[in-house]
């Protein structure tokens, strides 16, 4: 099976981190990217993995998160445009992460 995406939208950064923790513990998924809107009052988390794992992760967040989800969904076998959109979002974080070398130079 190929890559699938699980998406949740929830209010608040703390609730989003809690929901991500729930998702990662519930199934074999990894964080693809996340987006904050309205100053962090609305957070979208996107995880990836096999369809069954992503579905289980989204369901776990839906039923166990600190707050009700504003929206959620699973995209099995996403179109290449969706994959590109998620990769562009994720690249913002990869480009801004300090490398080990730059960290060592700061210390």
TrEMBL record:
It comes from the Bacteria. It is found in: Bacterial microcompartment. Transmembrane segments: none annotated. Residues 4-87 form the BMC domain. Gene3D superfamilies: 3.30.70.1710. CDD domains: BMC (cd06169). SUPFAM superfamilies: CcmK-like. GO terms for cellular component: bacterial microcompartment. Its main location: other. It holds the Pfam family BMC. Keywords: Bacterial microcompartment. Belongs to the bacterial microcompartments protein family. This is BMC domain-containing protein. It comes from Eisenbergiella massiliensis. The lineage of its organism: Bacteria, Bacillati, Bacillota, Clostridia, Lachnospirales.
